[in-house]
Amino acid sequence: MRTSILLASLSISVLGADLPSPALIVLNKEDATLVVVDPKTGKVSAPVPTGEGPHEVEVSADGKLAFVTNYGARNPGNSLSVIDLAAGKERHRVDLMPMQRPHGITVAEGKVWFTAEGSKLIGRYDPAANKVDTLMGSGQNGTHMVLLSKDASKIFAANIGNDSISIFTHTPDGVGWNQTVVPVGKGPEGLDLTPDGKQLWTAHSRDGGVSILDVEEKKVIGTFDIGTKRSNRIKFTPDGKLALVSDLAGGELVILDVAGRKIIKKMALGKMPEGILMDPSGARAFIAVAGDNHIAVLDLKKLEVVKKLEPGKGPDGMAWVQ
Asked: How far apart are CA 322 and CA 302, in angstroms?
């Protein structure tokens, strides 16, 4: 049965106080821009320039600000862009020198956590003070993606170069952090927590496997092979029943049954599928197909692509504003 594809028409609007609700925030790596896409109509805002090679984006809890890691392209990047979404402009370009290659980013308790892949560390930016107030060395090569537990008591980072996951937990005084380094498969890149927060899954970019970590025990409790050529991201559906893995080199999306730890379906999406974002409602997922300059919209009930959005060149990182 042939999947029906509805190609959203590309129209341009200016950013303003009337942002679409919900709004899909998209980074275009090749254009070095951030755009806002109306997921209902496919309309794309006027682009907001970022630093070179923007890779990941998160938004503030109130949906007013977007935070972008400028990873760099020809040269290593060393900045964060703070974008005022209503005004449609960059409010701050945060200089991170001498840190290099900021990549993963997440927001917790009003602070912005990010990795500096080229400097083996995790940093924290305070938007209210407009300064970096915390730096923590991982001692691991390629500290790439980062996320926090819901209560912000644990920090998780994928270290591609050392085949490991870092788990940071608070010291007894609640001020500092202790790190546990957990060996996993080859080239862990994508990572996500199960909705109950009990397990961390990481997809390996270099051996086609997935490692499952027990969060409290800080150890691997299972691995299985999904046959990918280069896993890039892994994301759970809000109900925790499925996990989606983008295979950048294979051009596929791999859909996993979480309970059974097995593949349900593989879907050819095009060149270089990378970023994955879940609609919080659980109805659909957005997969950035960077090499073909579109975002595939996946119906999570039918497990079919039902629409394509065209945000710009080289889409990757995405965020959601309700």
From this structure: 23
Amino acid in the structure at residue 96: L
As a residue count, the chain comes to 322
Neighbouring C-alpha atoms within 13 Å toward the C-beta of 100: 8
Token pair listed for 50: 């970022």
Q: How far apart are CA 162 and CA 73, in angstroms?
A: 23
Are 145 and 157 within 8 A, CB to CB? yes
Q: How far apart are CA 41 and CA 228, in angstroms?
A: 33
Are 190 and 203 in contact, with CB atoms under 8 Å apart?
A: yes
Q: In whole angstroms, what is the distance from residue 51 CA to residue 242 CA?
A: 34
Instruction: Write out pLDDT tens, residues 39-51.
Output: 999 999 999 999 9
Instruction: Kindly give the pairing relationship between strand 54-59 and strand 76-84.
Output: unpaired
Angle formed at CA 235 by CA 250 and CA 162, multiple of 5 degrees = 70
pLDDT in tens, 199-247: 999 999 999 999 999 999 999 999 999 999 999 999 999 999 999 999 9
Q: Are residues 254 and 228 in contact, defined by beta-carbon separation less than 8 angstroms?
A: yes
Count of other CB atoms within 10 angstroms of residue 204: 26
DSSP string, 249-260: TTTEEEEEETTT
d(CA 118, CA 107): 21
Prediction pTM value: 0.93
**39 and 24 in contact (C-beta within 8 Å)?**
yes
Strand-pair partners of 219? 214
Can you tell me the distance from the alpha carbon of 314 to that of 316, in angstroms, rounded to the nearest whole number? 6
Cα separation, 177 vs 154, whole angstroms: 9
- The 10 Å Cβ neighbour count of residue 106 is 19
